[in-house]
Amino acid sequence: MGDEFLHSENTQTQTQNSQLEWSQNNTPAFIPTIWGRLYSTKLNLAGRYLWSNPNHQEYHDLIQPEFSLGRAFTCSFVLNKNMIKENIIRNVSKQQFIIKRDLQETLNPAIITDLSYNGTFVNGVKIGKGNSRVLDDNDVIAITHELVKIFVFKDLLKNEQNQVPAHISQKYYISRILGQGACGIVKLVYDKEKCTKHAMKIIKKSRLTNGQINHLTDPVKIMNEINIMKALKHPCIVSTEEVFDTHEAVYIILELMQGGELFDRITKHGRLPERLTRFFFRQMVLAVTYLHSEGVTHRDLKPENVLLDSKHDEALVKITDFGLSKFVGEDSFMKTMCGTPLYLAPEVVRANGQNFYGHEVDVWSLGVILFICLVGYLPFSNEYKEMTLRDQILKGQFRYSPAHWKDISLEAKWLMKRMLTVQVERRITLDQILKHPWMQDDDIIIRVEKMLCHAAQIKNFDRLSLKSVEEKSDEENKNSVTVIKLIATGKRTLSDSYNSCEPNPKKLRMDIYSGSGNKTGDTSSATNSICSQE
C-alpha cells in the first residue's frame, strides 16, 4: 500500500511539474508593434527585375524605432551583390538611408533621412544628403536613381490622411488632434518635404438650421479671420503659413506653438513671478500696439489666446484667435457685443451691440490678463455674488485680496488700476504702458528686444523699436476680500463666456479662498470688500 501511495504521489508530482513546464513554455510572448512595412518592388519602369533573385522576400516589417539600409554590416538591411543587381549595388552607399519613428505617440510620422552620395528618392523626388522628409502610406523609395525603386512604404499605424482633401494630404502629414471646440478642430501636421511641425485649424463652414446661419461658422466671419491673420506680420502674432478654402471647410496652416497657452502656465504655477510677468506682458503690449497700428482691434484678448513658443520660462509670446477681431478705419467704430465677458471692457458691456467703442477695449483686457498673471485669480466673475458680473465691470470694482497682493510692487498695482479704469478717456494708453515705471527693466527690455529681433529675422519681419520713460505710481489698497482662484481641470468650457472658438477649452473651476488663504464656501462676508478703483 505504501509503495502504491508513493508511486501515486510521484506520478502526481511529475504531472504537476509537467503541467508547470508546459504552462511556462507556452506563455504567449510579447508581440511587438509592427508600425510599418517595406514591400519589395518587382519591376522597375524598364520592366526589369532589380533584385537578383526574383523570389526575393516580399516585405520587411518595421518594428524598431530605426531602420537603416546600405552596404555596411551595421545596417538593419544589408544590401549585397547576391540580393540586388551589381550595376546598382556599386552605387549604393555604406549607409544609404535611415527611417526613424518616435513610437511614444502612435500618430508620429515615419521620417526618412538620406545619408548617401548618389541619392535617395521618394516618389521620384531626391531628398538630398543629410536632408529628411516625412514618409506617408504608399510612398515609393528609390536609391541611386529615381528609376531604381526598391520599396513601397506601408504605414500600419493610424493616420488621418483620408480625412482631408487630397491636395492637402499630399503636402502635409496629418497627425493627432491638438484641440477641439465649437468652431472645429486643430490638428498637428507635418510638412512632408521640410519635416516641420504646424498646427492646422479646420473650420467647418456653416450649415443652415431653421434658415439661420450659425455665427460661429459663418463663412463671412471665417474669411474675416483669415484675411486678418494673413495680413499680420509680427514676431508676437501667430503667423498664417497657408490657407486651403474648400466647399466644406477652411484649412488654415499656422505656426505651431510648443509652449501651450499662457492660461496653462498660470494655472500650473498658481501665478507668475512679477519679473516673468513683466517679460511676457511687454511682448503682449508690443503685439497689441502693432495690431492697433494696422487698424485691428483684437476684442477677445485673454490668457487662452496668448500662446508661448516653448516650455522655457522666458518664451516668445504669440497672440492668436482673431475670430472676433475687426479692421477699424480712421473714422469707424465698433459696436458688436462680442468677446469673453470676464475680460470685456465697460464700454463693450454698456454698448450692448448698439453704441460704439474703440481700440481702448484691448487695454482693459490686457489689464485683466496682467491682474491674473500677478495674483492668479479673476478680478471679475459671476461667482462674486455681491454684485453681478455686469455691474462689477461697469463700476470697475475688481476683487482685491491683500493676502495675494502683499508681495506685488506698488508700480505693478498702479499700472493694473490704470488699465482697469472705467472712463475710456482716463484709461492708460499702450504707449503710456510701455513708458510706465513698472515696465522700465533694462534687462527685460534687452532680452525681449533680442528675442523679437531674432524671431523677426527668421520670419523676415520689420524690426521693432522700443521706448522707455517714467510715470507716477499709486498707493496700495488694503481691503480684505474673498477671491476666486483659477484652476485648470481638463477641458475648459467657460461658464462666463460667449461661444469661443479656441480649441480644446479647459474648464475654470472656481474655488473660493479667503484673504488669509483658507478655503471657505461663504462669500457673504466679502460683500462690502470689493476694491473700487475710482
UniProtKB/TrEMBL annotation:
Taxonomy, superkingdom: Eukaryota
Gene3D superfamilies: 2.60.200.20, Transferase(Phosphotransferase) domain 1 (1.10.510.10)
Protein name: Uncharacterized protein
InterPro entries, per database record: FHA_dom, Kinase-like_dom_sf, Prot_kinase_dom, Ser/Thr_kinase_AS, SMAD_FHA_dom_sf
Domain Protein kinase, residue spans: 172-439
Polar residues bias locations: 515-534
Pfam hit, one: FHA
Residue ranges, annotated region (Disordered): 1-22, 498-534
Domain FHA, residue spans: 67-127
Listed SMART domains: FHA, S_TKc
